[in-house]
Amino acid sequence: MRNFKVVWRDSNGRVRSSAVSYSATAAETRKQQLESDKAVARVIEVAPGADVPADVLEEMRAGLPSAACP
User: Fold this and answer.
1) Count of CB atoms within 10 A of residue 46's CB?
2) What residue segments make up the domains of the chain, in order of their start?
3) Which of 7, 40, 59, 64 gets the highest tally of CB atoms within 10 A of its CB?
4) Is 15 helix (H, G, I), strand (E, B) or coil?
5) What is the superkingdom listed in this entry's lineage (predicted)?
């Protein structure tokens, strides 16, 4: 089973990540919800029980647009 987390930068510039893992479809749905609230969001595949990698969080903090991130 593949696991995904959502990481986003909210309209206040705060970077957050999901506490739970999602299926690919559920993660995309959550991403769309966040983007409709003006957040910049990414879906990241993670190992079971793993957190979002630190480099992804740093990219989000640096304000890189989601299209520029792998």
Assistant:
1) 18
2) 3-50
3) 7
4) strand
5) Bacteria
Cβ partners under 8 Å of residue 61, min gap 6? 9, 15
Average pLDDT over residues 49-61: 92
Q: Letter for the amino acid at 33?
A: Q
Largest CA distance in the chain: 34
pLDDT tens digits for range 8-44 = 999 888 999 999 999 999 999 999 999 999 999 999 9
Q: Letter for the amino acid at 42? A: R
- Name the residue with tokens 């506490």: 19
